[in-house]
Amino acid sequence: MKDKKEYAAHSTNEIVIRIEQDIKKGLDKQNGRYIQFRLAFISRENDRIVKHILHQSDVIERKIGATL
Q: Which helix (H) or strand (E) holds 39?
């Protein structure tokens, strides 16, 4: 069984691959060299909408030109 660090690294890699694929498809017209992502949980507490940041990635250099 993978330890937490290995699992987190694998999960982060999977998310980065999907982001890179979307950028390649032109969904993001920005051509920045770096990406960063956040996983947010949005919920309702009474009559308020509350956003909790569950994870914020490090700044990641894009794999420009890489085959995904």
A: strand 38-45
